[in-house]
Design goal:
alpha+beta; 7-stranded mixed beta sheet; 7 strands; 23% helix
Length: 186
Amino acid sequence: MIDTGLEGKNEYSGYQYKFVGKIPGYSEFNQCNFIHRFSFRYKNTRGTKRCIFVDVEEYDHQVFIVKFYLKHLKNSPKRFSATTQDRLCGRVLATCAKIMLFHFAKVNPYASFGFIGANGEGEDKHNTIRFRVYSPLAVRLFNPNNYIHAIKEEISAYIILSRANPDPLLAENVYRMFKKHYEGLA
């Protein structure tokens, strides 16, 4: 059984979600091996009832990068930096964590994860507000006994490395991949 850290914590229980589909990957930057994109969606059941998409991109080294955005912003270049003021960050991140843990880590114990805390309008890409909010939640949602939590403040990246992965160069390879893929962020 996977220890999610979610049991008994209603504010971190997340939402019910649906698998939408899987498509072959492509690299916008042509520098990383983007293998697949898995898409999920859910509806915020409190307040505004907004539809939110969660995309999980699979890369080399069994790394999965999570991205989420509001449905109505799907084609917007600002979809990852939009804010809602719904104050449901814990539940949104718990939903993303459930997807990562139950759809990826459960079938692949070597799976590692990561995310970027996108910068808001007028905000520098270094140590963003989102990054500072998401980071402590990630520690609560991904058990440190099972994962190594690493941060790269200069690009607001949070990396969650599986302790089960036997690759001695995993951290180095993942950092290199992040740097290549997110070159425009540094």
